[in-house]
Recover the amino acids of this structure.
């Protein structure tokens, strides 16, 4: 018998949705979306990214990401320019305003994570992270 309450994709989705809803409500106070946060966080971690690499890091489809980056550029959170090495490639980087906003949002993101991990030990949380990364990698292997 199929048990939805123990079906891993269902469980992961429920947690992801709850975390996204909580964080999105806080992000709205700053006038940005969850997708914008993902871009800010990715650029904060790895600055000056090609649009295609940023799409991979954020799991946002390139055409959607391009529009999102355009909105973020108008908000002065990121800048984008043609790559000097490949004129077809677009490079994106945080502006000073984007970096400042990211620094303000990181503690909020960490608080959401702490809420999700409240009853989980540090050791189990580390194991969960490794397992989730491994599960993601399974979909990128032939």
């Amino acid at each position: 018998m199929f048990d939805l309450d123990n079906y891993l994709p269902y469980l992961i989705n429920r947690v992801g949705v709850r975390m996204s809803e909580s964080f999105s409500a806080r992000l709205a106070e700053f006038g940005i979306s969850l997708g914008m946060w993902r871009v800010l966080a990715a650029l904060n971690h790895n600055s000056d990214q090609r649009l295609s690499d940023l799409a991979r890091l954020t799991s946002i489809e390139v055409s959607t990401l391009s529009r999102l980056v355009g909105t973020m550029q108008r908000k002065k959170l990121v800048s984008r320019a043609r790559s000097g090495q490949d004129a077809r490639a677009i490079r994106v980087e945080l502006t000073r305003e984007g970096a400042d906003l990211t620094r303000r949002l990181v503690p909020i993101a960490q608080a959401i994570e702490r809420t999700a991990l409240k009853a989980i030990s540090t050791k189990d949380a580390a194991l969960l992270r490794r397992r989730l990364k491994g599960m993601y990698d399974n979909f990128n292997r032939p």
